[in-house]
Design brief:
This protein is an alpha/beta fold. Helices cover 40% and strands 12% of the residues. The N and C termini lie far apart (62 Å). Bound molecules: NADP nicotinamide-adenine-dinucleotide phosphate.
């Protein structure tokens, strides 16, 4: 079909929109690239996970965040394999469960995650929680270092580590975590820990980027959303992107998953960013990593 060079045909239009919405990547401290936007799968039941992840991949997501604790690694792997995308085009993160804080158990747990996902070496594997009174996260980390060196894991990192946990880890082990995945949203901005991560070459990943829905009724965010003709969720996610953090909002709704990925064809002004910065309320939603020691039965 002839298309006038000045008029976009349907296919061109799709490519044009996708080009505007290209997801940037961040290079981790071991040279591996991670897409700055991913899709979170916490609380997506296993029977719904394959469909949700396939829909996310169709919408353009190329990074999926799962965990042993979520019970849906198998379905994440099935979706990636059935998507028709090359394995190297999709970045997959999983996390060591809290009952695996023992070097031998951790090695078995890595093998189990690898088997469940069925995608070869996992792109990024995290110690999910430091659990300061359960085993010793330094020993657990050394076990992951071994798995990283052997090539079973492409990259390793931590989650919910406070500065003190990181200081102990950095002083006693060799591989610097590539990421620290922590709770961050406009009401809990974590400035000192994000600065510590940055100063040590550790990328901050922000979990609960829209505060699990808590920020959606905020009047300041609503006003900014009106100014840029976007939703509150998009404004909040865009704020994270401009701060340079990695995010993976979760949604069980295909429409909201698509909404959450349309972040790369608009920008917040410095003034709008400053107004969101001013919303910090030190309001943590999840457990405090210094005192959280929960282990599944
Ligand atoms: N490392 C850790 O300890 C840890 C802890 C928690 C989470 N995470 C990871 O981080 C990911 C994201 O965090 P999260 O799932 O806790 O919270 P979140 O992404 O901040 O929020 C998810 C909630 O917001 C709703 N939502 C999503 N998009 C929306 C939109 N555009 N408009 C209105 N509501 C919307 C979702 O409902 P619907 O599904 O109905 O849309 C869901 O209730 C998780 O999925 C998981 O991968 C890691």
């Amino acid at each position: 079909m002839f298309t006038h060079p000045g008029i976009l045909g349907p296919r061109d239009r799709i490519e044009h929109v996708m080009a505007d919405n290209t997801i940037p990547s961040i290079t981790l401290n071991n040279g591996v690239d991670i897409p700055q936007l991913g899709f979170g799968t916490y609380q997506i039941p296993p029977r719904e996970t394959k469909g949700a992840v396939l829909t996310a991949l169709e919408a353009g997501y190329r990074h999926i965040d799962t965990a042993q604790m979520y019970g849906n690694e198998r379905e994440v792997g099935e979706a990636v394999r059935e998507s028709g995308l090359s394995r190297s085009d999709v970045f997959v993160t999983s996390k060591l469960n809290n009952n695996a804080h023992d070097p031998a158990v951790a090695v078995d747990a890595v093998a189990r995650s690898t088997d469940e996902l069925g995608l070869g070496p996992i792109d990024l594997y995290l110690v999910h929680w430091p659990l300061p009174e359960v085993g010793d996260f330094v020993d657990t980390w050394r076990a992951l270092e071994g798995q990283y060196r052997s090539g079973a894991l492409r990259t390793i990192g931590v989650s919910n580590f406070q500065q003190g946990h990181l200081e102990r880890l950095l002083a006693n082990t060799e591989v610097v975590p590539a990421v620290n995945q922590i709770e961050v949203h406009p009401y809990f901005q974590q400035a000192p820990l994000r600065a510590f991560n940055r100063d040590h070459g550790i990328v901050t990943e922000a979990w609960a980027p829209i505060g699990q829905g808590a920020v959606l009724d905020d009047p300041v965010l609503a006003e900014i959303a009106g100014q840029v003709a976007r939703t509150v969720a998009q404004v909040t996610l865009r704020w994270h992107i401009q701060r340079g953090d990695v995010i993976f909002p979760k949604s069980s709704s295909p429409a909201r998953a698509a909404e959450n990925s349309a972040l790369f064809d608009f920008e917040l002004s410095d003034e709008q960013v400053a107004r969101i910065d001013a919303l910090d309320a030190d309001r943590r939603l999840g457990p405090d990593p210094d005192t959280f020691n929960w282990v599944p039965a």
